[in-house]
Amino acid sequence: TRDGGAPRARGSRAISRADAGRYICRATNKHGSAVRSIVVTVEYEPSIGETGCPAQRLWVEGTPAELACAASGNPPPHVACAKLGDGQDPPPASPNVTRAHAGTYQCRATNTHGSALRNVTVAVEYSPAAVSLRVLPSANVSRGASFSVECRAEGLPTPTYGWALPPAPNLRFAADNRSVAVASAAAANRGLYTCTATNRHGRRAGSVMVRVDESWLVLLASLGSLGAVTAVGLAAAGGYYLKSTACKKGEYNVRDAEGSSEAACLHRQRHDRGEVYGIQLTQP
After folding, report:
1. Which residue has the higher pLDDT, 153 or 86?
2. Digit-coded pLDDT (tens) for 198-248
3. What string of DSSP letters covers 222-240?
4. Residue in 85, 76, 67, 86 with CA at minimum distance from that of residue 109
5. What distance in Å separates the CA atoms of residue 105 and residue 228, rounded to the nearest whole number?
6. CB-CB neighbours of 170 under 10 Å
7. CA 161/CA 196 separation, integer angstroms
8. 24 near 37, Cβ under 8 Å?
């Protein structure tokens, strides 16, 4: 009998795992009886089920890395898991999880009666990283031109995006908030644009400086200032010239002056008494 159950008939049949257990064997005749207890063990090949070895795993970056997979079998099987594609065992429990751990692993359970295989897919979640901003077409924007600032970040789950930027009425955000477009750039649009990527594991920010180029205004202002200075200079020079060449009345030897290298014929008129010369005089 098995565990005090009904007696079993003699004979042979195919063994199943349900046959394992303690049996009581009793021999009886008219002179008495003998009893012996026997433990029956049934050995069988390994198997790996969903309960002891889920096919989908979710790890978090920075936590201890351990891929445990339980299998049934008798004798108890040895289980080893290796990442497909590189033939390496997963790291033991002490190292921390990194994004490189993501992938598909194959777990093999083995004993003296055979082996069983099961694939396990591991996904690694991590906080936002590698936040980058790009200004199109350029971070140096001409006044009146249009530009956009795009934000990209790695992360799992997919990050959401938030912005801190110069306030202006000509801003338009994308539906997923990953970019902001600026039409007809003005002075209010220059400054620091900061994008923050966030998921349930953390957040990270990145920034870029946008400059609105108003050099043509500066050039016009400079030209205006230069014109004003030039006009003042010309006026001063003209005043000095008029002052230095003002007519000095007196009698001069025209013949000598006419032939002199220092004399200049500034003005000549026809009179009844002949020609009259205007002479630029130099101080003796």
Report:
1. 153
2. 999 999 999 999 999 876 554 444 445 445 444 445 445 445 444 444 444
3. HHHHHHHHHHHHHHHHHHH
4. 76
5. 80
6. 13
7. 6
8. yes
Give how far Cα 11 sits from Cα of 6, 15, 41, 154, 214, Å.
Answer: 15, 12, 18, 68, 103
The two tokens of residue 100 are 């490189």
Percent of the chain residues past pLDDT 90, beyond the cut: 58
**What is the C-alpha separation between 41 and 23, in angstroms, rounded?**
11
Give me the phi and psi of 168, to 5 degrees please: -160, 155
Per-residue pLDDT band at 16 (split at 50, 70, 90): confident
- 118-147 burial: b if 16+ Cβ within 10 Å, else e: bebebebbbbbeebebebeeebebebeeeb
Whole-angstrom Cα distance, residue 128 to residue 205?
9
Contact 194, 206 (CB under 8 A): yes
Cα separation of 92 and 10, whole Å? Answer: 51
- The set of residues, in sequence order, having a beta carbon less than 8 Å from that of 196 and lying 6+ positions away, is 161, 162, 163, 164, 203, 204, 205
Pairing of strands 56-60, 114-136: parallel
Of the pLDDT bands very low, low, confident and very high (cuts 50, 70, 90), residue 15 is confident
Are the CB atoms for 47 and 73 separated by under 8 Å?
A: yes
The residue count of the chain comes to: 284
- Higher pLDDT: 8 or 183? It is 183
